[in-house]
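Entry 14. Structure prediction run on the chain below.
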Amino acid sequence: MAAIKILLVEDNPGDMRLLREILKDAPAERFEWHEAGRLQEAVAALAHEHFDVVLLDLSLPDSRGLDSLIALKPFAAALPIVVLTGFEDETLATGAMQLGAQDYLVKGQVTGSLLVRSIRYAIERQRAEQKIHEQAALLDVATDAILLRDLDNRVVFWNKGAERLYGWSAAQVLGQTAADLLYGHGLAGADEARLVAEEVFATVVVRGEWQGELTKFTRSGKKLIAQSRWTLVRDEQGRPKSILTVDTDITEKKQLEAKFLRAQRLESLGTLAGGIAHDLNNILTPIVAAAQLLPLRLTDLDQQDLRLLRMLEENSRRGSHLVTQILSFARGMEGRRTILQIRHLLGEVGQIVRQTFPKSIEIRIDASAQDLWTIQADATQMHQVLMNLCVNARDAMPGGGLLTLTARNLIVDEHYARLIPDAVAGAYVVVTVGDTGTGITPEIIEKIFEPFFTTKELGKGTGLGLSTVLGIVKHHGGFVGVYSEPGRGTEFRVHLPAAAESAVEPEAQAELPEGCGELVLVVDDEAAILEVIRTALESHNYRVVGACNGLEAIVAVSRHRGAVRAVLMDMMMPAMDGPAAIFALQDIDPYLPVVAMSGIAHAERPRAHHPDLRAFLTKPFTLPELLLAIHTAIHGRSAA
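Output returned:
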């Protein structure tokens, strides 16, 4: 066994010899001595050699009393120091222990066994304290918040991780009640969180451990969610002594989980919407067409009858728009994109809101920048985005206020794009719709883009407006930011990618021509749709042959080979669906023009399935849209 190396700091030669003699006969121990008669000699020895323990006399030629211990401690910080003195003074002994001495011995009362025991215990205690300090340092390195509280819920340990997470330093919290720190009075939700924490405390005292998620608050009042692990610490006799808590901040993780769940709900809703949209639009298509056809066929209708038909058509269109909104945010819609100047859109929307909004709302539009970039977008969908935002702004200002619509250019760099979900670097046109209304609380902002979420009274909102806005903007490659403060208004900033081309003026639409007796094949499994389309086309000088599915369509084209001038084909039918029927018809007549129709969306269009696929109609479509599509299909074939 290695010898214990002792540094004896003593200026009396007689005391030195006495101590050596006392330890000479110590059983099972070997000692190596190094003597220093002055404090400065002890400091020099500590600088050049390693020792296990220091025996220190407080009365030295160059130092007296506790000053000797104070002066030596910095040079022997990791060594146990046993004080040896001729003074039996309780006050002096207490002071020495408070300054870090491991023991206090009076020379005249020291025996060999007492001195050996004191040296051994001093070394063991010093090593234990060193280990504790090392473990505490490791706890401070940990990113988790680690705190120890006694059974009165008072903090007795608080690591650096807790300082970083909660904002208080260890010096500020030691001895404080943990509940008062982490669940401050007056904070929203703090009382409920405190009650939960008290229940957890009681559970740990009984069961010994607990883990789960807890809501806590930082020094600044910020709410966070912690994954918390509580463990009961017992003393040597097994009695409860304190509770160790380890907290991991999972606030961001929970936010990401919530976003993921919202995305899953949207995906599920998209699947549901796609499944029902076809049937709903098939129901609405004959209603819209019949409401438009009846005034043309029945010329003796009075004003009340016409008003009822207009009401029927308008409400059918409302139902169709609702389905369109669901598909817009749930699955995306393609639409017809052209080069648009946002200044013109703002002018059109501004004219509508000035005519329809209450006079108590002031409208300001600023899109005067001469170099304002253009965008490539579907004009109808952009109108829908702006009108939805304006209507929300109107509803947020029941007592009146200021509605502003502005547009500006913005370059988004890589750094800015990383800070915003769905953003990519590039050039954008930013359209801002702002109001001075009631504002939105942070809790509500997290939910406003969820489908069917609304704060409006029952019957006054579908909860689809902002979901539609987000779906359309994302489908155009843009993103939406919202900035609001309760009582001070809200701003929605719609970022749309700038187009590389310049805007062009739309051509004037030509007047729709009548048919000239051409034969049109209409294929749809819905009898009502087939009948109303037959009536509409025959009323405009076309001949119509009908088919209920793809197989009947093939038979009809074969029977009227060369006579069929165009095919209006539904995409979803039993027996043989639209895409399969188009392939089969191509084998019979490669140049037969086809107009596709569907109750789903443009995204379901069978691209490149037929070289002469001339148009795509989304149900329910209007009579002008139908006639224009058929005329274009036949005219294109004739031109070929």
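The domain at 519-639 is CATH 3.40.50.2300 (Rossmann fold).
Filed with the rest of this week's runs.
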